[in-house]
Specification:
The protein is α/β, with parallel strands linked by helices and 298 residues long. The chain has helices at 48-51, 107-118, 136-143, 155-167, 182-192, 217-230, 250-260; strands spanning 14-20, 23-28, 31-36, 56-60, 68-72, 81-85, 88-92, 126-130, 147-152, 175-179, 198-201, 206-208, 214-216, 238-243, 267-277, 284-295.
C-alpha cells in the first residue's frame, strides 16, 4: 500500500462506502450514488437498506460495459456542489458518461504531486498536464507553486477545471488553459522549442479532439510518448503516467517511460495500482495503474 495513504490521510469529502456484485456505493459530500465497478466481484458488505439510501444509480446499457444512463430516486442539484480534498475544492456533479467530475483513485497522486513540488523549495517548475480533464492534478500542482499548462480537448472540461482553480482560491496562480488536441498541441510546442520540467499524463482509452481527431491508446501511445519526449527537458524534475485502459499495467507504463525518457537512468520509479479504500469491508477497490518518476535530487 502506498505510504501516502498513511494515518495522516487528508480531509476528503468523499468515501467509498461499500463495493460488491459489480457495483460501488459512493458518498460525494452530502450525496450518495451507485455506479458500476466491474472489478468488485466479491459480495457486498452493507445491507440492502444502506444501498437504498442512494439518490441515484448509473447503469450501463444492457449487454454493454460502456455507455449508460442515470436513474435518480431523489432530486440532485443540477448545477453540482463542492467537495473538499486537503486544502483544495472541487465542483462535482453526475455527467452523462457516469462520471462525477473527479477520480478519487487519483487522490494519492495529487498528494504525491504536492509533496514532490514542495521539495523543490519554491523552484518555478514548468509542468504540462496532458488530458487534464477537470483539473485536479493541475490544481494540486498550482497549489505547490508550479507553472502549469493544462490541456484537454473538451472545452467543457477546461471550463470546469478553471472553476475548480477559482474555488480553491488559486485563481491568481500561473495556469495556462488550452483546449486542443493533445498531439497537435505538443507538436506545435516542439516546433516552438518549448521544454517542460515535468509532465502529467492520463491518456484515455479512446477519445476525440475538438475537430474530430481520433485518439486510440493502443495505436497512438508510442507516438504520444515520442511527442512528450520532444518537449521534456534533458534534466526533468518529475513524471506521472496513469491509465484506466484494460490490458495496460503498471509495468507497461514503466516500460514506456524507460523507453522514451532516457533521464530515468538518474531517477527513481514508483509503480503500482490505483485504488480506493472501501470503508465497510476494509478492501481496496482497484482502479487503474500509475508510474511515477522523480530525479535523484528529490
Amino acid at each position: 500500500m502506498d505510504h501516502l495513504l498513511a494515518e495522516n490521510y487528508p480531509q476528503f469529502d468523499y468515501q467509498l462506502l461499500d463495493t460488491g456484485e459489480l457495483q460501488k456505493l459512493e458518498q460525494f459530500g452530502p450525496h450518495r450514488f451507485i455506479r458500476p465497478a466491474p472489478q468488485a466481484i466479491w459480495p457486498k458488505s452493507l445491507s440492502s437498506a444502506e444501498w437504498k439510501e442512494a439518490e441515484g444509480e448509473y447503469k450501463y446499457f444492457k449487454g454493454k460495459d460502456t455507455g449508460g444512463e442515470w436513474k435518480f430516486f431523489t432530486p440532485t442539484p443540477k448545477d453540482g456542489w463542492n467537495i473538499q480534498f486537503h486544502n483544495l475544492f472541487f465542483k462535482v456533479q453526475p455527467t452523462g458518461f457516469g462520471h462525477i467530475g473527479l477520480f478519487p483513485e487519483q487522490a494519492l497522486n495529487w498528494l504525491w504531486i504536492i509533496d514532490q513540488l514542495r521539495q523543490l523549495n519554491g523552484t518555478k517548475i514548468q509542468l504540462l498536464n496532458v488530458f487534464g480533464y477537470t483539473g485536479a492534478s493541475t490544481i494540486a500542482a498550482a497549489s505547490a507553486g508550479a507553472h502549469v499548462t493544462h490541456i484537454d480537448a473538451s472545452k467543457a472540461s477546461v471550463t470546469w477545471a478553471r472553476h475548480n482553480l477559482e474555488l480553491s482560491g488559486l485563481g491568481d496562480r500561473p495556469v495556462r488553459w488550452i483546449v486542443d488536441d493533445a498531439m497537435k498541441y505538443m507538436e506545435r510546442e516542439h516546433r516552438r522549442g518549448k521544454k517542460y520540467d515535468a509532465i502529467i499524463m492520463d491518456p484515455p482509452s479512446f477519445g476525440r479532439g475538438p475537430k474530430g481527431e481520433v485518439w486510440n491508446i493502443e495505436n497512438m501511445l508510442s507516438q504520444f510518448m515520442k511527442a512528450c519526449q520532444n518537449i521534456l527537458k534533458d534534466s526533468p524534475a518529475l513524471l506521472l503516467f496513469t491509465t484506466h485502459s484494460p490490458g495496460f499495467s503498471a509495468l507497461t507504463l514503466e516500460n514506456m517511460m524507460r523507453t522514451y525518457f532516457p533521464a530515468h537512468k538518474s531517477g527513481n520509479f514508483t509503480t503500482g495500482e490505483m485504488f480506493i479504500p472501501d470503508k465497510s469491508s476494509g478492501l481496496n477497490l482497484p482502479n487503474g495503474f500509475f508510474a511515477r518518476w522523480v530525479a535523484d535530487s528529490h
